[in-house]
Specification:
Strand order of the largest sheet: 1-4
Order of helices and strands: HEEEEEEHH
Helix content: 40-55%
Strand content: 5-15%
Radius of gyration: 19 Å
Number of strands: 6
Number of domains: 2
Shape: globular
Number of helices: 3
Distance between the termini: 51 Å
């Protein structure tokens, strides 16, 4: 009985570490892709409008910013994709408390 508890605790610790590690790797991949996009677009003579790209983080505690041209990109709680609004859990809680999505955007 004691060994199964120990294995369960080890498994949970390992899972948490791997989840944290995969989140860190995903952020780094996103940073790399953003920098590559900036490099290639500059080579092609294209300029990325810094006011448009935004970052929406979900289920991550990583506070390292994703940057474009050395400047951190703005974070958002929601966005609309193909007519569907996608929001973070925090924004969903706020909307249940009476905030509208438009108010969430203007407060950022």
């Amino acid at each position: 009985m004691g060994s199964s508890r120990h294995l369960g605790a080890s498994w949970r610790t390992w899972t948490l570490r791997m989840t944290s590690l995969s989140s860190h790797k995903a952020i780094n991949r996103c940073r790399g892709k953003t920098e590559l996009l900036n490099t290639v677009s500059t080579q092609l003579g294209l300029n990325i409008n810094r006011s448009k790209p935004k970052i929406m983080k979900t289920n991550t505690k990583n506070n390292n910013p994703i940057t474009l041209k050395g400047e951190p990109l703005e974070e958002t709680d929601s966005f609309t994709y193909l007519g569907s609004t996608i929001i973070t859990n925090e924004a969903q809680k706020m909307s249940k408390q009476g905030y509208r999505t438009q108010e969430l955007h203007s407060s950022c």
